[in-house]
Write a structure and sequence with these properties.
alpha+beta, Rossmann fold, 3 domains, four-stranded mixed β-sheet, 12 strands, rod-shaped
């Protein structure tokens, strides 16, 4: 929809202003403080409540306009009195449209495209890229989401690697099997215990023999019996000694030392293996980071290739390092005229997708003639109507000076 007519009565500094636009763009020119902005702001003033809008000295005021899309007409108006402020929106069929619904038809940035320059470079770039025709199959939002996910993964892995720390370098060591040594030591201990038992038995037997020998003189009557018993015991003693002497004597201390050394070596081997595992994990972190870096590079390559082949909303626009460039110059370093042109073009593409295809451009006196004509050409191709105001030097103005609040002191031109 575009504005086909507008009417202002007793509103702010304008007493009466009626204009048939028939969907054409409009330039309002005149000195400062003559109501130019008021004249081109009717659409937005209808949807936004304004304080003390009635012209000084009057009791009632009205702003209204007619919108048309070639099929349907919409009549919107806001009426003011000293105590009331009401809005009414109807279709040509008499159907009522709520203020909220009507407002949703109007793009939020259409009232002041310059505001896009207040956004950061990244936000400006997002707006620009939404207007670009990319090669088939390329989805910059998807690439951006993938990039954001990879960046987060990269940060996570880098943090894990940092917290993992650099291990203390360990001297190379290898594990020694200790089961056999332990088994041998157990057998030696068992044999030593058995030998000790035999020694105690021998000592006991020798003590018994000594006692019997001491008592032989007093036991003459039993001498023969005791002698036989002694011989039996001596034989038993000989057998015990023989059995003991047949048991090999092993150096227990030597084996214990070997076992201790083996256990120390095994501890060193364990620490060395942990060190190698730590180093392997660090290498794994590095491989993951390298893989993510490669994927980021691939995404950036796809994006750059897509932007190289893209159809931009106007000649000279490009994106580098998530910033907008115009004719190889960073947008924020461009002149006011060029920045106004870019902001208008970007907002114009967004407005072209809205039901109400109207943009307000205040202060176009800051634009060069060539930039202004480029803007109008882009808007015409997009099917967007522009309502613009231009301040002109009062001394050079050809408009007739009329008493304030009787008729506007500006001139209009339809494009």
């Amino acid at each position: 929809m575009k504005i086909f007519s507008l009417s202002i009565n007793n509103y702010k500094s304008i007493k009466t202003f009626n204009l048939e636009l028939a969907g054409k763009s409009l330039i309002v020119s005149g000195p400062t403080d003559t109501g130019k902005t008021t004249a081109i702001s009717t659409l937005w003033d209808i949807i936004e409540k304004v304080g003390e809008p009635v012209t000084h000295g009057e009791k009632k005021g009205l702003i209204s306009l007619t919108l048309h899309d070639g099929k349907q007409k919409v009549f919107a108006k806001r009426e003011f009195t000293e105590k009331t402020n009401t809005i009414s929106i109807l279709t040509s069929e008499g159907e009522k449209i709520s203020a909220a619904q009507f407002k949703s038809w109007i793009h939020a940035q259409s009232v002041d495209p310059h505001k896009i320059l207040d956004l950061g470079p990244l936000e400006q770039t997002k707006v620009l890229l939404s207007t670009v025709q990319l090669p088939e199959g390329v989805d910059l939002d998807n690439l951006a989401s993938r990039r954001e996910l990879i960046e987060q993964q990269r940060k996570t892995i880098a943090a894990q690697k940092k917290s993992f720390g650099v291990p203390e370098v360990k001297k190379e060591a290898y594990e020694i099997p200790i089961e056999q040594l332990q088994s041998e030591l157990n057998e030696i201990n068992k044999t030593a215990n058995y030998r000790g038992d035999l020694d105690r038995a021998i000592y006991k037997t020798e003590d018994l023999i000594q006692n019997l020998t001491n008592n032989l003189s007093a036991l003459n009557t039993e001498m023969e019996i005791k002698s036989k018993e002694r011989l039996t015991i001596l034989k038993s003693l000989a057998e015990l000694k023989s059995e003991r002497d047949n048991i090999p004597v092993t150096n227990q201390n030597d084996l214990s030392n070997r076992l201790s050394e083996a256990m120390l070596s095994n501890q060193a081997a364990k620490e060395y293996q942990e060190y190698l595992s730590h180093c392997d994990q660090l290498k794994n972190f590095d491989k993951q980071l390298e893989s993510l870096e490669n994927e980021l590079s691939n995404i950036e390559s796809i994006k750059l290739d897509a932007l190289e082949k893209a159809v931009w909303p106007m000649p000279g626009l490009s994106v580098r390092n998530d910033s907008i460039y115009l004719n190889e110059t960073l947008l924020e370093n461009c002149g006011t005229s060029e920045r106004m042109l870019v902001s208008a073009v970007l907002v114009g593409h967004a407005v072209a997708k809205s039901p109400v295809k109207v943009v307000r451009m205040d202060g176009i006196e800051s634009m060069s003639k060539s930039d202004f004509l480029t803007m109008i050409d882009v808007f015409d191709k997009l099917g967007v109507q522009v309502l613009a105001s231009k301040v002109i030097d009062e001394e050079r103005s050809e408009s007739i000076s009329i008493e304030e609040s009787v008729e506007p002191e500006f001139t209009v031109a339809l494009l």
